[in-house]
Amino acid sequence: METNHKLSGKYAIAGLGMVIGVPEKELEHRNAALPGHPMLANAVASPLGDLTAKDLEAEAARRAIEDAGLTTQDIDGAVHVHGGPRSGGGTTTHLDAFPRMLGCPVNFYYLVGRGGAWGTMGIVSALSFLELGLAKYIVIAGSTEDWSRSHSSEFRGQGNRGHIQPSTVSSMWSLPFGRTAAAHEHSMFASRHRYEYGTTERQFGAAAIQVREWACKNPLARMYGRPATIEDYEASPSYIWPYHVMDMAVSSDGAIAFVLTSIERARDCAKKPVGVLGIGFGDSQGGQWWEGAAHYTKLPVAKAKEAAFGQAGIQLHDVDVAELYDCFTAELIMQMEDYGWCAKGEGGAFVEAGHIGPGGDTPVNTSGGLLSAYHLADLTGISESIFQLRGEALERQVEGARIALVSGHGGEVISPGMCSLHSSLILGVY
Amino acid sequence: MAWKKPAPYTRGTLRPFWEGLTQRRFLLPKCNTCGTWYFPPAFCKNHKNEPFFGSLSWTEASGRGTIVAFNITKVALRSAFKDDVPYVYALIGLEEGPIISSNIINCEASAVYIDMPVSVVFWNIDELNCTIPYFEPDLTVVQSSQLNP
Fold first, then answer.
1. In this structure, what are the phi and psi dihedrals at residue A407, rounded to the nearest 5 degrees?
2. Residue in chain A nearest B37 by alpha carbon
3. Residues B60/B70, Cβ–Cβ less than 8 Å
4. Chain A closest-CA separation from residue B133 CA (Å)
5. CATH architecture of A11-150+253-274
6. Half-sphere exposure for A272 (CA within 13 Å, toward CB)
7. In chain A, what residues touch B86 (CB-CB under 8 Å)?
8. Average confidence (pLDDT) per 10 residues, chain B, 149 residues
9. Which CATH class is domain A173-250+275-428?
10. Are A289 and B42 a contacting pair at CB < 8 A?
11. Does the predicted TM-score (pTM) go above 0.80?
């Protein structure tokens, strides 16, 4: 593989802040699990209450700035990241912009993102502002109030799961056919993978269970304190077969923000710099009409991986911790294959063998992922990578983690059932 | 029975598709030069496309295909679909090449399988003055015994 080390060592994440919604009656218990730890300074559990996602975003940004040892007056660039105006979970109303709420003297503020590649789109675009000297410290932040939205009258009683989507022009093709939830599209991956490779329900369940085990070690995770067995999985409701409720991501209230700057400036900040070592993208749009069914058993990982790993100068075995986009279990199993941890078609068996959970040799989604922790697209994986690489991941710390892989997945509905984008982001400490 | 579900969006680039359905014709865009079929309309990958979408013509297709993937909704997430559960939402690989999505009707949900041959059903929605393309098992290919295992 041709390597291109242009990125490595030039830019870094200097501070992290997050506010994650948890059940109100568990708030005290959750925050009690955090004291005395650096995590407390930059992460907090909070019910949304009367706040909006944008309020939480400003608070997350404030915490990120503080975590970096900076002040609001140091911030000269700001990015709001989201899933795109027509995507599913995570698109929030822009009531206000966090740099104005915080009084940051920014030179620019813009919105960027697509599907599940919020943070990675934010980083790749912000790098050009740093490269051109248009900013020194850029805060990248995103937020969601999908959990609270799921309580609104339109969505009541749907179990807060599976990202039930409101009517939009882009979904008008399939709405008359009862395509009312993201699971109606994403479960096509599971359906086809079962058919092509004999992947079993218990193998999808194994992915959900192992990620849940990680969540039980994360006081910020939605499913903290809720261990589950494969029998629980099999007994859980299946609203949209072949998926059970546990195959679907949680929806969340919360915000995650981080500070991006040069490696030199990051070294003068309060925390250990987390280097941005590689970024890549792939998209399956180009072939959708003539590759047909082949699109439903793989994600467009190849080009994204080649670019990101090439820039970082690493191989798969160098990845200490992987924070993969697990909006649904099939996406997780396919990524185990598409990145090359196992052969195509063997993802189910690989996961079922226990590789990805606590104690496994390939730690995946150590926060509890989108399935069991919080769904802020790839910001979930970026924040968890920062904790892991700085050694702040509490009980779920992967010892000696130096290289992390974060993936993003998603996009507008451009065919009857597909999200087309894939992003790979390599973060690392020196 | 009154149509309570979301109405199909019959305007825009798919207007000829929906107009064809009201005449019980299943039309897909086809390249005038190389015969490649598309859905929805696209720029033909093999040819110049002048004027806009100019190399494609809406052409009657077979309305037949096979199931590529599917799911079964057992609990309606919207009340408009309460009377339909369990219902099958499927990706259908059309004989001509493109993939389309629809419901599989006139068949028990538990009898649906990947590779099942299906054909279009023209379902009139009188109050909306339009016709919706559902699919059903293609009985010229599927043995009826396969539907009642």
1. -120, 155
2. A289
3. no
4. 10
5. 3-Layer(aba) Sandwich (3.40)
6. 15
7. 241
8. 86 92 97 90 79 83 97 91 96 93 96 97 95 95 62
9. alpha beta
10. yes
11. yes
